[in-house]
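Re: the request from the purification team.
They wanted to know what the chain is likely to look like in 3D before they choose a buffer screen. I agreed to run a prediction and write the result into the notebook, where they can find it.
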Amino acid sequence: MSVGERREQIVSFVEERGFMSVKELSHLCDVSQMTIRRDLTWLDEHERVRRVYGGATLPQPSGTPVPAPEDRDRLFLKPEGSLVDRVDVLIAPSVDPSYDRILLDRVEKRNIPIVAESLSIGCEEAVVSVDNHGAGMALGRWVGHFAQEHWGGQALALDLSYRLTNTQARSHGFLAGLTEVLPSGQVILSINAQSQFKTAYDLTTDALTVHPNINVIFAINDTTAWGAIQACRDLGRDPESLLVVPFGLEGDTLRNALMSGQYCKVGLAMFPEIVGRVCVEAAIQAYNGLPLARQMVTPYAVLTTATLPEFYTQGEETWRINWDTVRDRLSIPLGIERTTRKKGVAYPGRIGFIIPFREHEWYRNLISCMRNYVAPLGIELETVDADRSMRSEMDLRRREIAHVAADMVSPGDVILIDAGQVTTYLAERLAQKKDITVITNSLDVSHVLKDNPDIALISTGGLVRPSTQSLIGHTAELALRELRADKLFLTVTGITLGFGLSHTDMAEVPVKQAMLRAAREVVLLADHAVFGQESVAQVAPTEAVHRVITDEALPASVRLELKKLGIEVVVARV
């Protein structure tokens, strides 16, 4: 199979399933994970798939607004190293526990203040957010009155929700407001639409097919609302018999949909123009060490076709906020009229902003508003996509783990090296060493070390496993029975105290077990994300390990439990 054919196959798999992990793709395409990562990077750059942490998902679907290439490149900068190392203050929402741990670890070391946008990250100076539950209730009440006037009091809703606490609050508030006005109103289905256009489209299509009596669709943001609207259109549903209710009105797409007066007749406006400025002002105050309210509540408004033009004016290209209306009607938690630097105030040189969903109009407009606001103040705004940042950060940590492991190798040592990305990085560190013997089942490790005449390189032989570039099977296991090593550098995909060391690829497990028997000392190379995971097949009890090299994001409680088992924990500091 050629490179082009393999990449087309990858696109087909992603289109069929919506998300594919690197491991799944490497197995299905019968190539190494490193090769798959290169393919996904190429496909992402050519907008065939979207590269995300751990795999790939669908690109931005047709029908969903996408910024021009030059705008996308301007808004979403590719990180070089860690964002936290380059900024004076950070604006960031909570992304997921693993990413948050890494971010907090970095921030704590650098003593960088954080302003959380939308959702708490854990150690921020302030959270800038709308009252999600209250706003949801206001929207639910409006829909309840609408159903009374137009549908004889019948309101049967599909809730396109999401897993985060703020989006859950929107859904719960909407139902509370609906049933306050209309006790008979109910949510027939509440489904996680993953905050994606295609998922929302598919769920809406299926839900309306199975439950044709649904007449209200509540969407926790514009992306899911737009997916629902497209599904309603494709199904040929009568716009007068079905209402799509967006929480956000984040950009032109849903504002235009609202003004069309078809499926969307009402929406909850969160005003990115206001939120962006409040985030910047909070960041400046945090940088100066000034006290901030822990929760900074930004305003919202329930807008209809009649009231949207009061808050926004439609220009030739885009809708623009009416600041006079904002000042008269809305309460804003901070002054947001700064146009020049004020004396006696220290200004950060660079503010960082992390984006969880780069395709959402909310974040594109938020970034644009913040960038326009900070420009006269001489502040640079740097934005980083969370997926890209996560990949970059994890790669950096694995390289540092490999660096620490390489320092444990001395002249005269005989070492066993397992297959894996981190062990390939280890081999790169060992490439300049002298007077060591390396036994490995990794083709990547062998390739890195093969040209050094001062390293005795022993391959276990065996059947080639293309997906991981490892050697497996009876030949490899037999060779390891006849060999002994001072140290084994082992990798696995899961570690828990109960299940022990585990691995996703069952064919590799017997070789790992043979390596364990051949080594006098077992050194586990494992970043924090491996801990707490139980993969398919057990490799060995946790006590089989003598030493663990990990990164700083591993919780202290886990480190303590490992030490209780007599395992030395070495933390690689980035």
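For the purification team: Residues 61-80 have pLDDT under 50 and may be disordered.
Please add any questions underneath this entry.
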